[in-house]
Specification:
With about 350 residues, the chain is an alpha/beta fold. It is built from 15 helices and eleven strands. The protein has a nine-stranded parallel β-sheet, covered by helices on one side. The protein is elongated, with a radius of gyration of 23 Å.
Length: about 350
């Protein structure tokens, strides 16, 4: 917040950083803070505290504040405790009101709009949208990063509405939304607003299911997508992956598809493989690491690999298939049209 707002409002540091609510002071250009007291009292009120301390120190303080189950990470505990989420969301909404005032006063125009890991939740998204609508001209950006913001479907729908209404301008190329509990409804809202200029989409760990993935698959061919990250969404089933596989031949610019840490059945793998049989000017990297692929799934890939002419790199570490399946995959690489440059990565091996 400080780095963004200092550029648009010269009094931001003095007005906000001297506020007693944060326990912060600026003297002679340096910030002095009772960081430990602030974080322990307020569960790390966020952007300010984390910018002013090492990540490890904040992580340790948060872990102590959220102590209750030594077998679970602080991240898991954070997601599991609604009252903590509410505290963070309330704090973020209050900070975002200041952001809105700064944007209204001076406006903002830049290539990147970074608001990752601010835990602003839907209430903060509402305030952000109000700030965007108050600007005298659209905020023209290329990259929008709202990763780790605790947005639900309602929150992301508000932000996507600013794309529809033109308050985020035109020319968006990167949309990063990982670590937000969006669900299917959130993915559908994103799909409805994807601009034709988009080349990077990250919806990793968004609790997306088959309906959401199907909606994204239908929308992505209208973009210039080059990198699609839909990892860590194990609730996507066969229907979702089949829809994505059917859309792949129309996504001619796609160069990297990350489907790692999902649950891939043989039917899902068959659909993805079928979508990669049409060659394009772009060679593709397919990441299927830790995707629960068993021997049946590995055999599906081995049988289809010589026909997957678009594929140049296949990542399969962390799956459960055995030595025979590994041998079948290696043999299939030899038959691949790009065998002289093809990269296959399996457990225990370097690139092959």
């Amino acid at each position: 917040h400080v780095s963004v707002c200092a550029r648009v409002h010269p009094d931001w540091r003095r007005v906000v950083m001297e506020h007693d609510a944060y326990g912060l002071r600026i003297q002679g250009g340096r910030c002095k803070t009772r960081l430990k007291d602030v974080i322990e009292a307020k569960f790390g009120v966020g952007g300010f505290a984390r910018k002013l301390s090492s990540r490890q120190a904040v992580r340790n303080l948060r872990r102590r504040a959220l102590a209750g189950s030594p077998s679970r990470s602080s991240e898991d505990l954070f997601w599991a405790q609604p009252e903590i989420q509410a505290q963070w969301a309330s704090e973020r909404a209050r900070v975002m009101r200041g952001v809105r005032q700064a944007l209204q006063a001076a406006g903002m125009d830049g290539g990147w709009f970074e608001m990752k890991e601010l835990f602003m939740a839907d209430e903060g998204a509402k305030t952000l949208c109000a700030a965007l609508r108050a600007l005298p001209s659209p905020l023209v950006i290329q990259k929008l990063n709202l990763s780790g913001s605790l947005l639900t479907a309602d929150g992301v729908a508000m932000v996507m509405a600013e794309l529809w209404d033109g308050n985020l301008g035109v020319g968006l190329t990167q949309l990063l939304l990982w670590f937000n509990p969006l669900g299917d409804d959130g993915a559908i809202a994103i799909a409805a607003a994807l601009p034709p200029t988009l080349d990077t989409l990250c919806v990793s760990k968004t609790e997306c299911g088959s309906k959401g993935m199907s909606a994204l698959a239908a929308a992505l061919p209208r973009t210039q997508i080059m990198l699609l990250d839909c990892s860590l969404n194990p609730t996507v089933g066969d229907d979702g992956w089949m829809a994505l596989g059917a859309a792949l031949p129309q996504m001619a610019t796609l160069g990297c598809l990350n489907c790692s840490e999902n649950q891939m059945s043989a039917a899902s793998l068959t659909a993805l493989a079928a979508g990669l049989t049409e060659p394009t000017v772009w060679s593709l990297t397919l990441d299927l690491q830790k995707s629960g692929i068993d021997d049946t799934g590995a055999r599906v890939l081995a049988d289809a690999l010589p026909r997957m002419t678009r594929l140049e790199k296949l990542l399969l570490r962390g799956n459960a298939f055995g030595l025979e399946s590994r041998a079948a995959l290696r043999a299939a690489v030899v038959q691949h049209p790009l065998s002289h440059v093809f990269t296959l990565e399996l457990d225990g091996d370097g690139p092959e």
